[in-house]
UniProtKB/TrEMBL annotation:
The chain holds residues 603 to 881 of 881 of the full protein. Residues 24-278 form the EAL domain. The lineage of its organism: Bacteria, Pseudomonadati, Pseudomonadota, Betaproteobacteria, Burkholderiales. This is EAL domain-containing protein.
Amino acid sequence: SAKKSGKSQFRFYDRAFYAHLLERLEVERSLRLAIELDQFEMFYQPRVDMVSGRVCGLEALIRWHHPNNGLVNPVEFIGIAEETGLIKGLGKQVMEKVCAQIANWSSQHNFEVPVSINVSPQQFHDGSVHEFLTACLTRFHVPPRLVEIEVTESSMMGEESMVTREMESLQALGVKLLVDDFGTGYSSLAQLQRLDMDGLKIDRAFTSELGRTREGEVFVAAIVTMAHALGMRVVAEGVETEEQMAILKRLHCDEAQGYLVSRPVPATEIPALVSLAAG
Ligand code: C2E
Ligand code: MG
Ligand code: MG
Ligand code: MG
């Protein structure tokens, strides 16, 4: 009977796995179509300077206008796009959209704020990020200083020469590099220094601990000290309360991003937000 239950357990696992596989295949199929039909829109979330209170940057965050499911957040599809390689095509659409938007804000609203783009580790593997971004910047007449790239710690792992070369080419172009979700991965001090990162974004898991546990504050203080010693700016992600903002100010964090300032919004809402914060 041990053998029998073992077998049925296997069947159960098999069926669950099959359902999971079908679901992923379905998402992959509709994602492929969505890329062809261009069903994506970039939302933008401001980042403010802690000292002046001004908007000093924007993060571009992708949204999918799904024909049946409405507006879909990236957690639902970025993982699958990465696993299937679809992220490469999607990532190119993102770079195009962001550069076109920067050009539009600059010409229609006369403002220039750097915009950061999230780039998945898989996008670096064929070595085309630098080349494609350069083409977009040229096509839309966007100066490289208005674009920043956010990479996760996993992109910086190891000595992978392609990734290193891509990052160095981007920096040589004048594009700043930010480490995203800092504290959740395994990057070492040596990697931060070797890749000469311009800034790091403290993951919101740590921000949410501020004011709740002593450890949260100790951790953020240590990151800020280390980052500043390495010449990097520090952005706190996921700032939701005035209390967190006050603690971050006291700890000399440079910039804040989160629902307290604004949620990610469509591009059309950005000019009002920027002038409001500036005035
Ligand atoms: P991320 O780069 O760490 O982006 C920050 C996420 O935190 C965003 O989720 C943002 O909406 C959310 N957030 C911002 N402030 C707060 C806050 O105060 N509280 C809470 N609870 N959340 C906050 P979103 O837009 O759903 O994006 C999720 C992830 O998807 C991003 O995490 C990024 O890793 C990925 N992603 C988004 N857009 C792109 C893209 O264009 N390309 C690639 N490769 N990945 C993307
Ligand atoms: Mg990010
Ligand atoms: Mg992040
Ligand atoms: Mg994240």
